Amino acid sequence: MAGDLKPLGLDPACIFVGGQWRAPESGESLPLIDPSDGTEICRIARGGAADVEAAIAAAEVALAGEWGRATAAERGRLLATIGRAVLEHVDELARLEAQDVGKPLTQARNDVIALARYLEFYGGAADKIHGETIPYLDGYTVYTLREPHGVTGHIIPWNYPMQIIGRSIGAALAMGNACVLKPAEEACLTALAFAEIAHRAGLPAGALNVVPGLGAEAGAALAGHPGIRHMSFTGSVGVGKLIQKAAAENVVPVTLELGGKSPQLVFDDADIDAALPFLVNAGIQNAGQTCSASSRILVQRGVYDRVVDAMAAKYRGLRAGPAMIDLEVGPLVSARQKEIVEGFLAKGADLTVAARGFVMDEAPVGGAYVAPVLFTAVNSTHILAQNEIFGPVQVIIPFDTEEEALAIANGTDYGLVASVWSESGARQMRLAKRLRAGQVFVNNYGAGGGVELPFGGTGISGHGREKGFEALYGFSSLKTVAAKHD
Ligand code: ADP
Question: Mean pLDDT across the chain, nearest whole number?
């Protein structure tokens, strides 16, 4: 492994602060496990409160110096340069992500390309976001300034490290913030590699600092630090609530993206052949460990059997195996995650299985593999139809009328993504308005896709918007200047 990390210049046992690799204050490390076979990849730093303190101090130094003085155009150009540097390392980064997360290599490669695309997008946007002038009283000139918050905190999960770095760090840097990033303890190598790549490409020291460590240690220290002026969190609902409470103590804005139970609604008049790949892929992509995975498929009675049969046929061909073999499904991220998913499956013992995929014989016994499962004729109130499972599991729920479909779709505590499959324009428009979700797709579904598309949830899926231009508003604060001049 050490050989693989060398070209990327990262030291996995270190934190990255003020443009330098340094040992964590604790002097301790944590094992990083390859979920494809259960072996240790390397040791990572066990960062803690003192390291977070140092990272915030380094970010403040960056804001007071070269980085704080950079113009919007300079920041934008730099982000675009970093994006190109990321692409120069596409193969190494993809391998690193595949090994660390257990993500099939092709999916990992797509994530590297998405990271580069975020940097291209936010690089281009950095100098195209501005304030406005406001007509006011006679003798006044009033205008608004969009300013960075200052030091922003970013706590990210293990499922899409590179994509989430792109949407979160990319947007924050575009607006001139300095960032402290706490990647997940299960997968943090690409976050560290990205920091090195960004600095080699010219990002000033302290503009991005990375402190790996445990959630309850480095994560909690970052979330509760008064030096953080904005907190962006992607992860579980339980930890999201802790983050919001910690931010409340310091009266700091938070963006929370906490997952979902996102439905796809398939009506009798839908183009079923067009829908099929989306119905399945949106559920099993990244082994179902996707916040915006579509884990509920709602199907109208007239096409019910056809959709179930076609999805079942696809499921029977789904193979789970080591990330590097690059099949449809990799292992889950950890033995713990596998236990959680198997716990849900045990609660679904009363359900009808439409079909299962399978775990390949080549899959090492120490890997965290779960064969994909498709349940049919599921009642919408069942525990598997209400809770985010975060594994390769989908439930199909029948419905008769549009009203019933809407009630089922809106009938969970989540509200992240939804999609409508129908050829009726009126139904598309009606449901797009009435579905409780931060994103609605019509005759398609984008799990995690769409750099340009504002993304975020309602209900326990969280609040605030990432991606697109919208994220730039979240990562900045508006100042109104009212000048009286006569
Ligand atoms: P999951 O259960 O899917 O691992 P989590 O919400 O636990 O999701 O983790 C997402 C991120 O939040 C990770 O970086 C993790 O280290 C961090 N985290 C976990 N617990 C805390 C906490 N108490 N305070 C701050 N961050 C935390």
Answer: 97
